[in-house]
Amino acid sequence: MPDASHIDLAYLLLGAFSGVLVGFTLGLVGGGGSILAVPLMVYLVGVPSPHVAIGTSAFAVAINAATGLIQHARSGNVKWRCGGMYAFAGIFGAFLGSTLGKAIDGQKLLFLFALVMMVVGGLMIRGRRNMGIPGAQCNRENAPKVLGFGLGTGAFSGFFGIGGGFLIVPGLIASTSMPMINAVGTSLVAVTAFGLTTAANYALSGLVDWMLAAVLIAGGVLGGFGGTWTARRLSGQGLLTTVFAVLIFVVAIYMLLKSGGVL
After folding, report:
1. Which of 116, 128, 130, 199 has the fewest beta carbons closer than 10 A?
2. Are residues 72 and 180 in contact, defined by beta-carbon separation less than 8 angstroms?
3. Containing domain of residue 143, as a range?
4. Is the dihedral of CA 161, 260, 31, 230 positive or negative?
5. Contact partners, residue 17, CB within 8 Å, separation at least 6
């Protein structure tokens, strides 16, 4: 029988590696952190409970999103008013959604998560040629739309235990018409808020592995620097949206095959 310390070391190393991938994705497209984190926790690291994987990844993604937010803010990519409005409305949705999500079977939750990802990926591919309006802001005219998208996105975020960036980015673009690079940076305000709200709710039920969360965060900080650097170079070429959608499709297909017993 293998030594327990070796198992623990491998568990934490895989967690740190997962964190690098999550941080890179957050820095690159502002979302996808939990899209990667939840399946990585379950299928690569080997966290036995999907609910623990969700609670742990929600906390780690929130902290990693905060570090990515700082980097994007330095580059001038963050629309703070839009991010604040979106996050304010979304926190209420995230709390309600996470309360409901805890009551549903973990494997069914992962399957539903993958189906939602496929729909969002298709919508992003459809609108990939829309470059947005430079200088777009949040004002009285679009405030109801921004708040509505924020509330709905927060509910999805909490229900699936995700930071929600893969929904927030298209939500910000749909409600404000801002360019992709601004949506990426601004989304991290809400990703941080949603993730912390969801993680707090799961932590109250003892569904967060704090040691694993720590190594996820450490790896995510390293990956975040690389992701933000890459995002700045892809934004001018209009490739960010395509990269974002492809990532969603790949992970969603893997999760559907896994949950269906094909893999």
Report:
1. 130
2. no
3. 4-259
4. positive
5. 219
Taking Cα atoms as reference points, which of 247, 87, 225, 242 lies closest to residue 180? Answer: 242
**pTM listed for this prediction:** 0.72
Distance CA 144, CA 134 (A): 21
Q: 57-68 burial, b if ≥16 CB within 10 A, otherwise e? A: bbbbbbbbbbbb
43, exposed or middle or buried, with CB in 10 Å at 0-12, 13-18, 19+?
Answer: middle
CA angle 218, 49, 38 (to 5 degrees): 45
Asked if 58 and 252 count as a contact pair (C-beta separation under 8 A), the reply is: no
**Rounded Cα distance, 212 and 192, in Å:** 18
The identity of residue 217, as a single letter, is I
Q: CA–CA separation, 138 vs 85, rounded Å? A: 9
pLDDT category, 64, cuts 50, 70, 90?
A: confident
Q: How many Cα atoms are found within 13 Å in the side-chain-facing hemisphere of 166?
A: 35
Closest to 45 in 3D by CA, of 25, 26, 60:
60
Contact 234, 27 (CB under 8 A): no
DSSP-assigned states of every residue in 109-167 = HHHHHHHHHHHHHHHHHHTTT----TT----TTTHHHHHHHHHHHHHHHHHHTS--HHH
Query: pLDDT tens-digit profile of 78-103?
Result: 999 999 999 899 888 888 888 888 77
CA distances from 227 to 9, 19, 60 (A): 26, 12, 16
Provide the domain count of the chain.
Answer: 1
Question: Which of 261, 250, 7, 243 is closest to 125 using CA atoms?
Answer: 243
